[in-house]
């Protein structure tokens, strides 16, 4: 069994409830991206469907486990085939509902997993709700959301709610260190905070050269602040503007936090000297104005406005560079 250490408690808790016939048939999980929620549900589902399981582990050898490994288990229904960011329409829900009211093909439990019910259409929500009002026997629903405030109350009222947040930094760092031994504690913690405390996203970030590229950009900012080069604009234009915008926003926030309460929860822990330097040459109002401008630019990037986004990006970079020369 391969499961992330920070969700073992939830894994065992759900299995214990199922083992004692106390597991509610409708589980609504509120979780943030990058904590392994899908892995949790898949492991639990595989264990439930396994015909030769032990206390907490599936056998991985029975017919059920083999079918599950091949993503072809007839009693496990999910919407993984739906492209990301595409809404789940009524026809997909109807097809799943039609099948789960039939007898289990393996003679056991049927499991339905929707990794993101936030992308349901209104019609899909209504169809799901009708099914949840009178769910078929021996059927478990795992419903995952990244924003429970957008889930209709009637679905919430029929579910048992679980919340899976980000693990404590010490747990994430311990896991990351085992997989990334060449990075220091400060580097790992910096990468973790840049990725909003998601250990899974951080691991990918460290291993796809993204961290190295980020470090190069920060080095150029440091050189510019210390009047050692004027290549910052050229370097910035070589990166994706959304990524550079995120890095600059995080840096601005760190400088503001440093000016107010020193090192508390700073993301760019490996750039303390740069943060100190910028804190000494700017004031809070300049920092806030810069942060507002860059935040507004993120909204422009996320919408299909018919404007020259690259030109705005260049203007913002030049304006920001100007504040760093004060």
UniProtKB/TrEMBL annotation:
Residues 210-320 form the DNA polymerase III delta subunit C-terminal domain. It catalyses: DNA(n) + a 2'-deoxyribonucleoside 5'-triphosphate = DNA(n+1) + diphosphate. GO terms for biological process: DNA-templated DNA replication. It comes from the Bacteria. GO terms for molecular function: DNA binding; DNA-directed DNA polymerase activity. GO terms for cellular component: DNA polymerase III complex. Keywords: DNA replication, DNA-directed DNA polymerase, Nucleotidyltransferase, Transferase. Its EC number is 2.7.7.7. DNA polymerase III contains a core (composed of alpha, epsilon and theta chains) that associates with a tau subunit. This core dimerizes to form the POLIII' complex. PolIII' associates with the gamma complex (composed of gamma, delta, delta', psi and chi chains) and with the beta chain to form the complete DNA polymerase III complex. DNA polymerase III is a complex, multichain enzyme responsible for most of the replicative synthesis in bacteria. This DNA polymerase also exhibits 3' to 5' exonuclease activity. This is DNA polymerase III subunit delta'. It comes from Buchnera aphidicola.
